[in-house]
Description:
With 186 residues, the chain is α+β, with helices and mostly antiparallel strands. It has six helices and seven strands. It has one domain (27-178): 2-Layer Sandwich (Dna Ligase, domain 1). A seven-stranded antiparallel β-sheet has the order 2-1-4-5-6-7-3. The longest helix has 21 residues, at 2-22.
Amino acid sequence: xxxxxxxxxxxxxxxxxxxxxxxxxxxxxxxxxxxxxxxxxxxxxxxxxxxxxxxxxxxxxxxxxxxxxxxxxxxxxxxxxxxxxxxxxxxxxxxxxxxxxxxxxxxxxxxxxxxxxxxxxxxxxxxxxxxxxxxxxxxxxxxxxxxxxxxxxxxxxxxxxxxxxxxxxxxxxxxxxxxxxxxxxx
Length: 186
């Protein structure tokens, strides 16, 4: 009887540690294509997917939650980069709509330091990125505050590398941005 109990406990421990060490290190919680309405809404996906220009902003180093939307709270903007055209909009869109961009959400500061505003005709969506806690948020700029639909989303190591590269490209003179690491913070 004791041997069966000991064997069962040993099997349970082996299964637990096998799962712990063999599970994928990054998992997709939500992806823009798999569950757009759950993540940020079909309208935002449509804007991102058809964006023809992008504005880029370096944000002041403090919580932005009281300063959204950026258009009404310019005091949150530390620096506005040169507006980008369709080619850059397409590359940013490709990154944002790629399911592997998203990974484990880190419950942390969410103090975004970078914002992209993507434009499709007269509609816009804003992407807020916090490289401290490695999360981003996509929001419809036209939605009323009570209708805002969006969840902070973790960024995978692949997604972070792509976003850091794009941000460095459009803010080449910003020392803080240029010092960003493509590696996920630990």
